[in-house]
From TrEMBL:
It holds the Pfam family SnoaL_3. This is SnoaL-like domain-containing protein. Residues 25-138 form the SnoaL-like domain. InterPro entries: NTF2-like_dom_sf, SnoaL-like. It comes from Cellulophaga tyrosinoxydans.
Amino acid sequence: MNKLIITVVCLFTFICHGQDAKSNIELVLNNWHKAAAEAEFDTYFDLMTKDGVFIGTDATENWQNQAFKDFSKPYFDAGKAWNFKPLERNIYVNEAGDFAWFDELLDTQMKICRGSGVLKKINGDWKIAHYVLSIAVPNEHVDALVLLKKEKDSLLTQQLKAKN
């Protein structure tokens, strides 16, 4: 009987801990998006790791933290960063409770986009370590989009192949 009680308590603790982590992560992500919408530069970047990465919608946008700060600063200073509102979000936490990944659908000025990323728990706080933003394209419009991107993507593909 004691083993059963201990097992139930441990399971309950694990489930509650996982839900607590998800709630904290939800809050971090919401605050991060809110900081961008309200052009709060310091708050926005304080919610990221020091080596955080932001991957934008353009194939050339692979921003390491300082480069992303440099790129973003004029937008924040002008009071016009970006305004992403979550429509749906899935959060997953590892068993140790110190690493999480997520995906989300967002209402943005580009219409529906998908964000996905990784968070790490650092000194008890969840921080965004990696974020990827992509424009969601309905399957029936992919062919038209490919035609629109074809020329620029061909040039970029040649440049990238030349580097390797």
